[in-house]
Amino acid sequence: MNVLVLGGTSFVGRAIVQDLLDRGHTSTLFTRGKTGADLFPGTARATGDRDAGDYASIAGTSWDAVVDVSAYVPRHVREASAAVSTGRYLFISTGSVYDRTAAGDGMTEDSPRLPPHRESEVVDGDTYGPLKVACEDDVQDLHGDRATIVRPGIVAGPHDPTERFTYWTRATGTVEVPGRLDQPVQVIDARDLARLVVLLLEKDQTGIYNAVGPQPAVTLAELIRVCGAEELVEKEPKPGFPLVLPDETWDVMFRRSAAAALSMGMPTTPLATTAADTRAWDVARGLPDIPVP
Fold it and tell me: Distance between CA atoms of 279 and 121, rounded to whole angstroms?
């Protein structure tokens, strides 16, 4: 396949490009050209700024597939779709599209979503999910049965810029946890997500897929122990702490079904492997051994 990746030099996009190359496909990266210039030598690149609507470098091109990693507002989807032609358009969405207040336990791809947001392009904690809902709607309207949507949960692994999972791989000895130890947690290895994306392209598969793991969810205590902690002390929940949910009403967001993705062949890297590889990457990049407070 000849695949255009909109993004591809950060975390999720980087894993997808690597998997495409590993499986013998040809990739072209469309980016702003500001990061990852040393990645994937020999891979074709095109430069443009999606926020500015600059698609001149790829205008009129044709592809077997487009993987859209970097669309955050619906205009990005519409402009990219107008600029190129493609056999399949695979959009990386988010589990944040779901309306947790209307979903039952065991959330599936058919669970209710939040209302779409089109009133502004300001991306923040309130608008991120609704903007992605609008993006999903436009992908399906523009591409029909050539549209594929992947909804990742929390993505973990080497090169993760968010620190959400990496934070806990630094935990050693006795760790104070400002959250419920029995809270559910789901994280997916970026490499598993990437393989799912490539498999869906290879199978020319339409549909919507939750990219989450493990199945079933582990507890927060289990995850932290896998990451290296020996003893845990539960403390009062701290808002915004990595992987800690505000309260029980959010637990459904970490109980999503990946049955559809697994049926397509999505691999399931053991959590211990993800933790060890993330820790090794974290150490190799020269950061200090930061204890969890």
Answer: 35
